[in-house]
């Protein structure tokens, strides 16, 4: 039986950041790679991680916010250009519209490339599955996949991926909710939105505008402490925090979570590879 493996591609946020690419991660089961979210830079990050973009046949979108989908155009067309001939995209309602809008925008471009002799498969026949509600997500993948609705300002799903003996959960963007505790019950790895980590961007700001944004964000995301509390209640083994604004205080972020969670805490960084059983960490 193949082991599950998690690769963080982008651990950033909507704010452009040289240290952190846009939100995206890969769950691998042997040679099968499943992309979850597709932020800015995803295709290049895949290549840096040693995962061929064209090898990805499944993309799960937690929600359709710009930071999670900016990389889709490059992944869709670039991955096809590299030889991908099959793709299924699973996401909330609106995914089909987003995909079709992009295909229409690039119609002439795609026509040109197919006229050169490239088959249209892998771009013109992309299967889009819109998840309507929480529950099992049916795919051809050899994994049990469950979606649960998160608390965010647009329809957002967290996803649970499990084999017979390993589980990885991706929260997407969310404020604290019982649904993420339920979804990540006893998981080996929980990748959790911790966007409210302490950062110089907002800390001690005198700007009323920034202060207002920071206050509003409390309803949309989790702090490291809240991520730790969720992991503790759910009984997960490893908490991986992600979706960071620029210049977070990493020590403080780690401590906030570790103070309330007995398991392993990882402050996510781009290209970190995490394996469930031994919780071994290596950088690629
Ligand atoms: Zn969002
Ligand atoms: Zn986001």
Automatic annotation (TrEMBL):
Any one Gene Ontology molecular-function term assigned to this protein's record: 3'-tRNA processing endoribonuclease activity
Domain Metallo-beta-lactamase: 33-244
The UniProt record lists the keyword rRNA-binding: no
Gene3D superfamilies linked to this entry: Ribonuclease Z/Hydroxyacylglutathione hydrolase-like
Keywords: Endonuclease, Hydrolase, Nuclease, Zinc
Pfam family, one: Lactamase_B_2
Keyword Hydrolase: yes
Protein name: MBL fold metallo-hydrolase
Record organism: Siminovitchia acidinfaciens
